[in-house]
């Protein structure tokens, strides 16, 4: 039934933020999508309560994304023909209930597509941090800096610098792949992989304490789980070398914010945070003024034309679906426990 009843295009609808559809699909991509799906609603669904029951009863496909409404038993009862949910973003934890998998609905994710910009942001920040550029940018606002002062500083530069990656997630793996083109020694901590994992060909698997002790730059790519909340706390930060940099593009609560702020104010560590706890920080949060901190407003993921890559991921999944081919990036129920 993947191709829809009576050989026609599957009936579909968008369920995501209004205005996101043209960001995901330009004219050419939308044309490809419309050749394969019959999109029956003019506007994306923000609440299933606002959709006529007779329309919901016929829907076979949903394209979801940021701002998607929750889908649980009640919504599935209203959509008995639903066969697939193509998610134009990463995690589906926030809006899909376990009933989706219990009823055999296919779920796919664009997490691999979203990994590209996050990994690129991470690589850029690692290179700038290793080069000692970030504090110089701040200094240059106030006075002329003599480059001769840093020409021979052994702590500046990326040759044979040790970088620690926490989490062999989709993004973590991509970061490791990008780092392999440079002269870095890459350490990896992830308790869920074994020594036979292909990622260990481009990194050295170590324990968390060893990674923190040896790395001058540590980048976090672990999911937010009960076991990872606060995993980088006071004791872990204390193991990092003086002047080391902590980079977090994953989830804010993985890092103990108070402990990190104490290290920053002591001038011992530096940090680059694209995520915080809470996210965003309150306007008057003391962490905002901590020295040695580069703070960006959750921009590592897909923005601008990068969002088109998420749409392309959905398109390719739809194209597989309508011809009965297996999904490239299915989300299985057992994936949820390790998903961000």
From TrEMBL:
<protein>
    <submittedName>
        <fullName>Hydroxyacid dehydrogenase</fullName>
    </submittedName>
</protein>
<feature type="domain" description="D-isomer specific 2-hydroxyacid dehydrogenase NAD-binding">
    <location>
        <begin position="159"/>
        <end position="300"/>
    </location>
</feature>
<dbReference type="InterPro" id="IPR050418">
    <property type="entry name" value="D-iso_2-hydroxyacid_DH_PdxB"/>
</dbReference>
<dbReference type="InterPro" id="IPR006140">
    <property type="entry name" value="D-isomer_DH_NAD-bd"/>
</dbReference>
<keyword id="KW-0560">Oxidoreductase</keyword>
<dbReference type="Pfam" id="PF02826">
    <property type="entry name" value="2-Hacid_dh_C"/>
</dbReference>
<comment type="similarity">
    <text>Belongs to the D-isomer specific 2-hydroxyacid dehydrogenase family.</text>
</comment>
<keyword id="KW-0520">NAD</keyword>
<dbReference type="InterPro" id="IPR029753">
    <property type="entry name" value="D-isomer_DH_CS"/>
</dbReference>
<dbReference type="InterPro" id="IPR036291">
    <property type="entry name" value="NAD(P)-bd_dom_sf"/>
</dbReference>
């Amino acid at each position: 039934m993947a191709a829809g009843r009576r050989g026609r295009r599957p009936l579909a609808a968008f369920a995501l933020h209004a205005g996101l559809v043209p960001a995901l699909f330009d004219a050419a991509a939308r044309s490809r999508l419309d050749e394969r799906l019959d999109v029956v609603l003019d506007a994306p669904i923000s609440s299933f309560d606002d959709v006529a029951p007779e329309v919901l009863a016929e829907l076979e496909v949903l394209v979801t994304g940021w701002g998607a409404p929750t889908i649980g038993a009640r919504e599935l009862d209203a959509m008995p023909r639903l066969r697939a949910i193509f998610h134009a973003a990463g995690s589906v934890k926030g809006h899909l209930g376990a009933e989706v998998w219990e009823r055999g609905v296919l779920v796919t994710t664009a997490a691999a597509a979203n990994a590209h910009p996050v990994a690129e942001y991470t690589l850029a920040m690692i290179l700038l941090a290793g080069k000692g550029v970030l504090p110089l940018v701040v200094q240059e606002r106030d006075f002329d800096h003599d480059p001769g002062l840093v020409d021979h500083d052994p702590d500046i530069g990326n040759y044979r610098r040790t970088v620690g990656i926490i989490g062999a997630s989709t993004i973590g793996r991509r970061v490791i792949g990008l780092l392999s083109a440079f002269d870095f020694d890459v350490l990896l901590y992830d308790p869920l992989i074994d020594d036979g994992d292909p990622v260990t060909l481009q990194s050295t698997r170590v324990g968390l304490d060893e990674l923190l002790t040896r790395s001058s730059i540590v980048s976090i790519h672990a999911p937010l789980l009960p076991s990872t909340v606060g995993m980088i706390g006071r004791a872990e930060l204390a193991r990092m070398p003086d002047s080391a940099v902590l980079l977090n593009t994953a989830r804010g609560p993985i890092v103990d914010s108070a402990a990190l702020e104490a290290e920053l104010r002591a001038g011992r560590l530096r940090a680059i945070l694209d995520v915080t706890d809470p996210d965003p920080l309150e306007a008057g949060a003391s962490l905002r003024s901590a020295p040695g901190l580069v703070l960006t407003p959750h921009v590592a993921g897909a923005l601008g034309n990068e969002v088109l890559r998420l749409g392309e991921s959905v398109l390719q999944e739809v194209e597989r679906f309508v011809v009965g081919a297996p999904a490239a990036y299915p989300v299985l129920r057992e994936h949820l426990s390790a998903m961000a």
